[in-house]
């Protein structure tokens, strides 16, 4: 279509505190997004949203911690 904007951009996933302080972030890079993260066999079968949550939670230092996320990242397997 004429005058239609180009459909591209960057996706960044962020783990932030209630104050807005960013503690970790994950840039989306297609197949290479999780290159430096280790998942179990069960975790590897989860979708993109669940893997983003698990990857960002790997760097939480102090446990137990409360993690809140949007419905895009929610799946029954992740919540179970």
What's this, in brief?
With 80 residues, the protein is of the alpha+beta class. The protein has helices at 41-44, 48-57, 76-79; strands at 12-16, 22-27. Strand 1 (12-16) and strand 2 (22-27) form a beta hairpin.
Architecture overview:
The structure is a single chain. The chain has 80 residues and is an alpha+beta fold. The protein has one domain (12-79). It is 22% helix and 14% strand. The chain has three helices and two strands; from the N terminus they run E-E-H-H-H. Strands 1-2 form a two-stranded antiparallel ribbon. It comes from Leptidea sinapis.
Keywords:
alpha+beta, two-stranded antiparallel ribbon, 2 strands, 22% helix, 14% strand, PiggyBac transposable element-derived protein domain-containing protein
């Amino acid at each position: 279509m004429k005058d239609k904007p180009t459909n591209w951009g960057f996706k960044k996933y962020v783990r932030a505190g209630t104050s807005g302080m960013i503690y970790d972030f994950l840039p989306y890079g297609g197949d290479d997004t999780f290159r430096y993260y280790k998942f179990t066999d069960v975790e590897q079968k989860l979708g993109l949203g669940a893997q983003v949550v698990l990857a960002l939670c790997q760097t939480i230092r102090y446990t137990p911690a409360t993690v809140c996320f949007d419905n895009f990242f929610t799946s029954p397997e992740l919540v179970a």
